[in-house]
Amino acid sequence: MDGERCACTLVPAVGKAQPTVSQHLRILEEAGVLESRRDGVNIWYRIRSDQAVQILKILDIQSIEIPISCSGGDHDER
């Protein structure tokens, strides 16, 4: 579970509306689970919390198939 993903790639992966995904990502960032960086209009997230990584290991989640970058151009996620 390394690397970072653009918020716009997470929207189709979770099947929720972009504002909903962005709000939840913001909450996870505020809780210290994620960290983010802005690159132009896109926001990139990565897992920050060692505890979150441990939970993924316990649940035997090796990887989640999410594209690395947006396919439809730039999207403003916040």
Question: Your description of this structure?
Answer:
A hairpin with a 2-residue loop joins strand 2 and strand 3 (42-47). The protein is globular and about 35 Å long. The chain has helices at 7-14, 18-30, 50-58; strands spanning 5-6, 34-39, 42-47. It has a domain at 5-58: Winged helix-like DNA-binding domain superfamily/Winged helix DNA-binding domain (Arc Repressor Mutant, subunit A, Orthogonal Bundle), CATH 1.10.10.10. Helix content is 38%, strand content 18%. It is of the alpha+beta class and 78 residues long. Helix 1 (7-14) packs across helix 2 (18-30). The chain has three helices and three strands. It has a three-stranded antiparallel sheet with strand order 1-3-2. Keywords: DNA-binding, Transcription, Transcription regulation. InterPro entries: ArsR-like_HTH (IPR011991), HTH_ArsR_DNA-bd_dom (IPR001845), HTH_MetalResp_TranReg (IPR051081).
Task: Label this structure with key terms.
single chain, 78 residues, alpha+beta, Arc Repressor Mutant, subunit A, 3-stranded antiparallel β-sheet, 3 helices, 3 strands, globular, disordered C terminus, HTH_MetalResp_TranReg
Secondary structure blueprint with pairings:
Blueprint: E1 5-6, H1 7-14, H2 18-30, E2 34-39, E3 42-47, H3 50-58
Antiparallel strand pairs: 1-3, 2-3
The overall pLDDT, averaged over residues, is 78
CATH superfamily of the domain at 5-58: Winged helix-like DNA-binding domain superfamily/Winged helix DNA-binding domain
The helicity comes to: 25-40%
| CATH architectural group of the domain at 5-58 | Orthogonal Bundle
Q: List the total number of helices.
A: 3
